[in-house]
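User: Can you help me understand a structure? I only have the sequence.
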Amino acid sequence: MSHLSFSSIVLLGCLAGFTIYLGLPFAFVTSKNFRTFANALSVGVLFFILIDILSKAFDDTKDRVFDSLTHHLFLQNGFPAMIILILGVAGAYLGLVFFEKRWIRTGSHDPKSLALIIAIGIGLHNFSEGLAIGQELMKGAMALGFLLVVGFALHNATEGFGIISPLAGEKPSLPFLFWLGMIGGGPTVIGTVIGESFKHPMLETFCLALASGAIFYVIGELSHIGRSKGSHVVVASGMLVGLFLAFGSDVLVDAAQSLFHH
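Assistant: Let's start by predicting it. Here is the structure, written out as tokens:
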């Protein structure tokens, strides 16, 4: 069990989650090429995140289904796992479609509303990252837990660009940027506290499913903006940089985990 104090656990969650603020000040940059590149970079980052979390959610659900079939417990374990995954992805995606239809004028793609949606999707993803940190701390794997904090902090720094991509050049207010950072990075802290305290077998899967649906929606919106406002070369370059930047940070985290497990 973890011997860290509650304040120490909260501090570690803050260190992992609030590096998201590092990318938010770039919302004040007015360069059109930068806005296009930042938008495309965020699409690349989010695309990698979507692949990463969907594969984990699918693998976890598939393992539960196979295990439940082996032990003749499909209705008790396997079926609920499938329902949670489907409802999480579809609920988040369709919920954001409804949100856009209800609150955003058709075709306007209001920058603040879109930035808020991105922050929510990333926040759901970061909640699951916090759960992973908390679980390692709960098991007493302090070195690995601290390493995850560093790895996720680096990863979250790139996610700030995803949040501000619709806002670049819009000169948003500082309080608005502050709340975007809280929505995107704050769930890391909450997840760390919950993960260090207890674990429900399907909680992480549900959070991953919600994040997948939200990010899937956001990628479609940002891709539309990028194609309509920027150079194809800049867009392609930004997407590739974002994809490999996210991949590199993820590799570092996985390599560190593997090293400590062995």
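Now, to help you interpret it: The radius of gyration is 19 Å. The chain has eight helices and no strands. Let me know which part you'd like to focus on.
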